[in-house]
Amino acid sequence: MDLKTASALRRLRLVSAPEAVSFLLLLVCSVLKRTTDFNAVPVMGMLHGVLFVLYVLFWADAWNRAKWSPKTAALYFVLSVLPTGGFFAERRLRREAENAVDAAIASRARKEGAVSA
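That's the Membrane protein sequence above. Prediction below.
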């Protein structure tokens, strides 16, 4: 994998946890709206919507760059619509991005070694 792929995975990872938190907060706000006079659903709904759209855009970019199988791509999409799925996606993406960076560094070192030899 190259550095652009690692960057795409990192962007998706960085938005996955805030998207999961916003989803949980939206659920809490929905309950509070029905049980009290507190109504933050419009604000949290908009915030969650923006984060979800970002997640989907970054997910599509990561799928394209990382050449995920349809099964892997579907897994990351399903994790985005589960209330705590973003936390699991973030953990898996961190490992995948670290592996991508390591592979890019090794590839660059091999190319530089071949040029100097």
